[in-house]
Amino acid sequence: MHRRKLLKLAVLSALVAKPLELALHYLTPLAPGSGTRRLLLPALSQTVATITVDWTSTISQTTPANFGSNDFKIISPANVADSTYHNLLKQINLRLLRFHNANLSDAWSDAATRTWVASPIQAAYDAYLPAYGTLPTIVQTIPEWPQWMAQTNNLLDPSAYDEYANFCAALVRIINIEQKRGVMYWEPFNERDKIYKDAGQLNELWTIYNKAAIAMKAVDPSIKVGGPALTYNDTYTLGSFLRASGSNVDFVSWHRYQTADPALSTDQLLAGTPKYADQVRSMRSVVTKYIPEREVPLFLGEYNINYSYRSGETRQNTYIGAVWFASVLKHLADAGIEMTASWNTKDDFYGLIDDRNNLRLSATVFTWANQYLVGANIKTTSDNTLVEAMAIRQAEGPRSLLLINKAAEPTSVVVQSVGQSLGRKGLPAQRIDETGVSSSTISAASFTSGVSLPAYSLTLLSLPA
Fold first, then answer.
1. What angle is formed at CA 59 by the lines to CA 53 and CA 65, rounded to 5 degrees?
2. pTM, to two decimals
3. Distance between alpha carbon 447 and the CA centroid of its chain, in Å?
4. Do 120 and 230 have their domain in common?
């Protein structure tokens, strides 16, 4: 009896202190027939964060090149012929595409004649025209040498160095001279650094790059040749590359997948997104050290949650993946990166589109980015590391504010806007959360009392010009 009185007294005291938090408190039996009751913990109230947006301070400029992707299906005749697929790419409004598949050099060439075959190349490029009208910005990779040039260890046969350089130049000739595509960006190979580093022959790889870059520019001097499409943000290997090839580098590219562990908790996964800004800054510092006389754009050519499609990772295709992408894009933009391409536009593992041409939630993030997040990237601060914001002033005048909740619980966000009134009327809002995509209007009063953000969610606000 004495314990029951103490429990009741505790409940009454707590109700007086925190009536809202304890509204869902109740007593329940500890075990059937025990006669003993226990006090359940209160339902957690929303955590609170304050976001400050300083519209007077611009930290970088974003362009459509910040929100690109890889066309992994570029060598697939079925997908090349699929107008629905290309219309979906246009719907997402992707305006930078990296044409890349590890088998591209073999798929587009003839081992018997040791030359490219123009017809599949033409079909792949022509397929974009009905939906796009004109080609989007293309980064054309030549991922590796065809098998008929490779040694058994997959290194390029030294006797084929010049042949490979001419092979790369021949693709420039077909695409830009004969087919008049005007492709600006070219990567002579893809993720070759690890096998050459393991073989102790990195300098040989840079010799191959230099020969290819010189031969390619001899065909079309207007192009930009870059690389080395590093397997990850390895600053040591980048320094080695720039010491040997800096004069032949027009942009620097690397890849970075966050993890190979599908068991990594969602909270750990989302906590790692700021590291994408860190890698941009570290790569930039190496480029500046070795090429101080000119600005060299940075290109994150591949990235997603998990590099192993066999891992069993599925969150990339859900609202969790949408939140992850939005946060990564925000941090990349804050670090001032010039170009990025997610992995990838379409497949049944990680594509923005699945193999049955269904858009995934991550596609909505890229649609939003290309429509609302191109322009002056405005300084934002948050007093909660799990709540982020990306604010953009578009060239035409409209302004957008993307609120990113990486917390596992709902969060109430107070928004302080410097240099831009949030108005007295409600603001149109679009949202991605566990329920999917929705739209609503958020009242002006909510910005001072607190905008409620669902757990693991995105909220995009459209502000007046």
1. 110
2. 0.90
3. 29
4. yes
